[in-house]
Amino acid sequence: MKTKKLLVELVECVSLFESENPHLERYDLQGFMAFLQSRSVTGKQENFAPRKIAGHRKPHGFHLHENPANILSRLIGLIYRYAREYTKKALEGSSLQTVEEFSFLVVLMTYDSLTKTELILKNAMVKTSGTEVVKRLLKKKLIRQFDDINDKRSQLVAITGQGLAEMKIVFPRMHLASDIIAGNLDPAELHTLVFLLQKLEAYHNELFLGRKDADLEDLMK
């Protein structure tokens, strides 16, 4: 059987895919292909020059060490700022003021209801900031609040008909913003980036939920 070696390698890759990505809710062909692409992308040389931000000066007393982790942190910050500008344009003229309000409603569209804490944590926000988002959505009547029949100490929130109507208006513009954010990546690159960011986000979400009060040194352990 000429393909026996290939099948053995494929099974080994599938096993590696599962062991390295326990955070995935399901394992499908698209995710597996992105995993394979991510393992080979380092050998692919793109014909483009990264934008130069830093100058040539070397400040006395500082060791400006440039490594992939530093570059990643800076690039994520830059992409975040670009994305906020695009989403602000997408929300112009709507009842929604921030991308956080939009993301809260997106989550609520997929549940009958959630506690406020569940909603805030699913959006990876601290309680004080998340509570302010909930208050704004309640004030605009885009969500409603009601008692939890299973826990009288808790209250649930759910999206309202008005909230759904608002999302129907906003969604096309937000999809356009998303396409702009994806930029000049081809489909294979986009799938690979999504896969890698999902892996990175799952790691940080675990830290956020379980160890967010730890200092940086402890988080590195």
Give the gist of this structure.
By secondary structure, the protein is mainly α. It has nine helices and three strands.
Write up what this structure looks like.
Helices cover 61% and strands 8% of the residues. The chain is mainly alpha-helical. The protein has a domain at 82-184: Orthogonal Bundle (Arc Repressor Mutant, subunit A). The chain has a 3-stranded antiparallel β-sheet with strand order 1-3-2. A hairpin with a 2-residue loop joins strand 2 and strand 3. Helix 3 (68-91) packs across helix 7 and helix 5 crosses helix 6 (127-139). The chain is globular, with a radius of gyration of 22 Å. The model has no long low-confidence stretch (mean pLDDT 87).
Task: Give me some keywords for this one.
221 residues, mainly alpha, Arc Repressor Mutant, subunit A, three-stranded antiparallel beta sheet, 3 strands, 61% helix, globular
